[in-house]
Structure formats: C-alpha cells, structure tokens
Amino acid sequence: MSLENEYKINKLLKEWPQGTVYLTSWLTKNGFSNQLLNRYKNSNWIESVGSGAMKRSGDTLSVEGALYALQEQRGSSIHLGGKTALSMLGRAHYLAFSARRITLFGNAKEKLPLWFIDYKWEAELDYYSTSFLPDQLGIVTHELINFNIQISGAARAMMECLYLAPQKQDLIECYELMEGLNNLRPNIVQQLLEECSSIKVKRLFLYMAEKAQHPWVRYVEMQKIDLGKGNRSLVENGIYVSKYQITVPKELVHYGTL
Are residues 198 and 213 in the same domain? Predict the structure, then answer.
C-alpha cells in the first residue's frame, strides 16, 4: 500500500466514531474509490455491512451508529421515535421497556436500506414511514459517547406513540407516558399540533394532556389547531368524550379516579 493510501486509511479510521457505519456512497464521494475500499477490506481495515455500508474491522455496531450514518451522510429523516425516544430522554423510566425492541420513524417516502434491514441487530426494529408530522419539527440532538444523533423530542415522541394507538400502542400506556410530560415547551407543542395532519393524534394528545392537568396546556391556542369534524371511535364499548369527539376505553376515562 502506498504512503498516500496508508495516510488516508489512518486518517479515516482516526475520525471514524466507534460503533458507527460509513456509507459506501459517502466514502466514494469523499475520495475513496471502490478499488481503494477493496484494498482496505483485503488488508482487514474495514468490513462490509451488507451492500452499501462499511464498518471498522472488529467493531460492534449499534442501531444508533447506523442511524448516525443515515442522518449525517445521507440527510435521512429516519430517527428513533415513540417509546424508544421517550426512554432515551429519561421520560419513561417508570415503565417497563424492552431493550430488544426499537421504534423508528421516517417520512412516507423513505425506506430503510436493505443492509440496515438485514443486519443482525441485538434488538427487533419497528419502522414506520409516515408524514403526519414535518420531518424536522420537534426533533432534538441526542448526545452519545462518540457521536450525536437526531431523535424525537418528548412532545413529538408522544404524538408518535398516539399515532400508533390503539392497534400498536396501548392507550393506557400512552396516558402513563403523557403523565410524565409535565414540563413540555408550549411553543413546541403548539407548532406540532398546528402542523400535525392526524386528527386522531391531536384530539388524543389534548385530551390526555388535560386529563393529566399539565400546566402547559393553558398556553395552547386551541383556535389555531384544526381538530376536524365528526366523531372518532377508537374502541368499541368505550366512553364518548364530547369535547374532543372521541370514544376512548372506559379504563382510560376512569384512570386515576377512585
């Protein structure tokens, strides 16, 4: 290997955060030809992660490290969301979370790369592609040991949970999550509610926030939020909440009462 190529791989490895993926498309764009990458692989510097991605030889990958590559090198909207994001933010410590299940969200036009899907992660992945919220609204930077990733902030993550309810997310658990969100920023909540395209999510979010008696609710400007028309029945044999025109489980209505 020439001195120039040895310098390039040493510099690459030095800057490569532990536990992360580098996309082949990004590497070639930044001066690493396929021929050179093959030399690095043959020299056992790097390894393929399926088709289109690389890792440092012997490195242990994490889902976060894969997301780092998608977000930083491809500008992807795919991020940790829902219960997973709330757990990472310390907003769900009192609930039982499975470390073997991770929730991902991305916009309606974006799919997970095949290498991401096929890799043998230590956790099961649930990926939901939807544009019920704008891509970057309510997204926050989450600092890890070696790198940062973008994840849903608390308000957005709560709405993502409600988006999945009741079929894929229990409504009682959603309310338990909502109870822990007593210090959300009203301006962020307002923006999310105004931009959210799901009537179900907006009605449930406001109903649960009021039921939890969160102080930030009084700062929400209801007249600016489109709550749609007509009734929404989320369960059979539930209780109708006239203010928000939704039918919810009896257990939810009576939750926290004697």
Answer: yes
What is the tens place of the pLDDT at every residue in 16-36? Answer: 999 999 999 999 999 999 999
Alpha-carbon distance of 240 to 232, in angstroms, equals: 9
Helix (H) or strand (E) holding 37: helix 34-42
Q: Are residues 68 and 33 in the same domain?
A: no
| Half-sphere exposure for 227 (CA within 13 Å, toward CB) | 18
| Inter-residue contact 80 to 151 (CB < 8 Å) | yes
The model's pTM? 0.94
Q: Both tokens of residue 153? A: 């902030």
Locate 133 and state its tokens.
């919220």
> Residue for token digits 């309606």?
108
Confidence band (pLDDT; 50, 70, 90) for 3? low
